[in-house]
TrEMBL record:
GO biological process: organic phosphonate catabolic process
Gene Ontology terms for molecular function: hydrolase activity, acting on carbon-nitrogen (but not peptide) bonds
Protein name in UniProt: Phosphonate metabolism protein PhnM
Segment forming the signal sequence: none
NCBIfam families: phosphono_phnM (TIGR02318), PRK15446.1-5 (NF011984), PRK15446.2-6 (NF011990)
């Protein structure tokens, strides 16, 4: 049974560690189906009270009518990779990078993140990609266990089927790593995200500094890898996801046939479908549709694919990911609210819906008994500004 949304659980007492309960009062509480003027209390890490009214009890924080939302849940961000390699071929020390990444996400309202790490490397041309996921994951898990992070971190393995070493790298992980998501990637040029080779060339050449000849060699090599290993790597990645106990996600589905394949393989949600056709097929197949917040903010895809706003207007959008701009996640929810005239529905795309997609039942909503991951947000015109972020009732930003 789901916990009740509004009410009181017991009496408020100090935490065992001496910290008083957190009380955010005189706030606009964004619940799953309404916005309610009231207050919320978090103690011992969980929500114990949600009460209606604008009164401010002694010791409470007066939110002065600001919004209070559940902490944002991010399923697919490349932000950690940006911290460990701030420029091409510049390798940054991992622990400082991890801590800086964690602090940045906390500052944007993200309280749960699935850090996307690439598995599957390319060795034999100038656009090579080296293996890094196992070593970085080990350091991430150690930092998490040591209490160095402000927010909750899980692993997301981006399984690059168009690569040399996918299965060898995935074999290095196991159930003890608690991998949360495995997404099936196929970046073979000429299909999915990079149907437009010009867009691919712009992206890769700028990132890796390739000449025209280098780029042509890169494309030919990727097509060769797909022919040699594509089917084997796809089947192996699905088997490994099942071994880990991870949620499977598809990535960049473009056609109805690709969506059908993803559904048969056991995908629970679809990351960034590239066409209207694919999004419609996801809806028919029961796959939740995830789109990128930068696509929403810009009103268009940077790769020339379908507009997330177009999908939202047709009711074909369920989950939003910050993708490569962490601060875009909160802003995207308020942009969606403008489209739908429904703030709870929009906020669910960055809280409750991603939690549901990966089986997290203890967070993603303001409800009694759930984790005390909450944000205080004010509006400056149409821009949401963070006034405070709490993870399990402890202020982290």
């Amino acid at each position: 049974m789901n916990p009740p949304l509004v009410g009181k659980v017991g009496a408020s007492h100090p935490h065992p560690d001496g910290h008083a309960p957190l009380c955010l009062a005189n706030a606009q509480l964004v619940l799953t189906d309404q916005v309610l003027t009231g207050r919320i209390v978090v103690q011992a890490g969980v929500i114990t009270d949600i009460l209606e009214g604008d009164d401010v009890p002694p010791g409470a924080i007066d939110c002065r009518g600001d919004y209070v939302l559940p902490g944002l849940i991010e399923l697919h961000t490349d932000n950690l990779e940006r911290h460990i390699e701030p420029r091409p071929e510049v390798n940054w020390p991992h622990l400082p990078a991890l801590v800086a990444h964690d602090a940045e996400l906390a500052s944007t309202g993200i309280t749960t993140v699935f850090d996307a790490l690439r598995v599957g490397s390319i060795h034999n041309n100038k656009a090579r990609y080296k293996a890094y996921a196992r070593d970085l994951a080990t350091e991430l898990l150690a930092a998490r266990d040591a209490g160095y992070f402000r927010i909750s971190h899980f692993l997301h393995l981006r399984a690059e089927t168009c690569s040399d070493t996918l299965l060898e790298e995935m074999a290095e992980f196991g159930p003890e790593d608690r991998v949360g998501i495995v997404s099936l990637m196929d970046h073979t040029p000429g299909q999915r995200q990079f149907r437009d080779l010009h867009a691919l060339k712009t992206y890769v050449a700028k990132k890796r500094g390739l000449s025209d000849a280098d780029f042509d060699e890169h494309v030919a090599n990727l097509k060769r890898l797909q022919r040699l290993y594509g089917a084997k790597h796809q089947a192996g990645a699905v088997a490994e996801a099942n071994r880990y106990g991870a949620t499977l996600a598809s990535h960049d589905d473009t056609t109805e046939e690709q969506v059908e394949t993803s559904q048969k393989l056991g995908a629970h949600f679809a990351e960034f479908p590239t066409t209207h056709e694919a999004a419609l097929a996801c809806r028919a197949s029961g796959l939740a549709v995830m789109m990128g917040a930068p696509n929403i903010i810009r009103g268009m895809s940077h790769s020339g694919n379908v507009s997330a706003m177009e999908l939202a207007k047709e009711g074909l959008l369920d989950i939003v990911s910050s993708d490569y701009v962490p601060s875009a996640l909160l802003l995207s929810a308020f942009r969606l609210s403008d489209i739908w005239n429904d703030l709870p529905r929009a906020v669910s795309c960055v809280t409750a819906n991603p939690a549901m997609a990966v089986g997290l039942t203890d967070r993603g909503r303001l409800a009694l008994g759930l984790r005390g991951d909450v944000l205080r947000v004010t509006l400056a015109g149409d821009a949401p500004l963070i006034r405070g972020v709490w993870s399990q009732g402890h202020r982290v930003s």
